[in-house]
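Bench notes, afternoon.
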Amino acid sequence: MRGPALAGVVGLAACAYVYAVDPSEPGHFPPCPLKTLTGLDCPFCGGLRATHDLLHGNLSGAVDFNALTTLFVLPVAMVLLVVWTVQRWRGKDFSVRIPMPLSVALVAAVLAFTVVRNVPGMPWGTAA
């Protein structure tokens, strides 16, 4: 149970910091290297601001900052943590095996999201 417990504690600590420190204010978090070099939003740009808004109960603001993080990454991470914890509680090993077609589909979806969010006037940018 050490692994899931440690992951939970680290996750809660990270959430507490993101809750307390607004990522929209410069100086607290490093900038995205891709955005700094190219001016384009990577798939996770706005993810910290989305998490901050989500922790403050602002779902629509979180989706505006980063729909991928809000609607997919965070829920999947939570489900995986719960399943991992339950499996370890039962004394079983836990591993995730993603079939190749699903891996290809996920990469394609992330690439499509990245293109759409960088088209001027399209939704799901970083709302900067």
